[in-house]
């Protein structure tokens, strides 16, 4: 079994920054896709960002709503996924989930992912 655990959420004023981390543990499956989603009550889970690895190359993708403000990265071993969030807006409020999958999948589709963290709450006050 693989476990993903998010940390780093919290309350921040608009314009501020937060850094989320997602640490993996358990079985040492190799992930080719790792991503971040967010969700607010009553709405569907929304794609935020993802990294896809193919051989030695990797590609990072962002939702238009966070482009230029958020940066997704990982350590070399893919044991920890990060989401650096800057210039936060109240619309960024939500539960942020880390997700991972073996193989390259459609990064913006939550149904593509095999493993999920429990979520980290981010609240941005105006």
Structural category is mainly beta
Report the sheet with the most strands, covering strand number, pairing sense and barrel closure.
7 strands, mixed
Number of strands: 11
Q: What's the alpha carbon Rg, rounded to whole Å? A: 14 Å
- The coarse silhouette is globular
| Number of H/I helices | 0
Indicate the low-confidence ranges by residue numbers. Answer: none
Helix-strand pattern, N to C? EEEEEEEEEEE
Question: What is the residue-mean pLDDT, rounded to a whole number?
Answer: 95
Helix content: under 10%
End-to-end span in angstroms?
40 Å
Q: Classify the beta-strand content into a percent band.
A: over 45%
In quaternary terms, these chains amount to: single chain
Explain this structure to me?
The protein is mostly beta strands and 126 residues long. Helix content is 0%, strand content 54%. It is built from no helices and eleven strands. It has strands at 2-7, 10-13, 18-26, 33-39, 46-54, 57-62, 70-74, 80-85, 94-101, 115-116, 120-125. Strands 2, 4, 5, 6, 9, 10 and 11 form a seven-stranded mixed beta sheet that branches. β5 and β6 form a beta hairpin.
Give a brief outline of the structure.
It is built from no helices and 11 strands. By secondary structure, the chain is mainly beta.
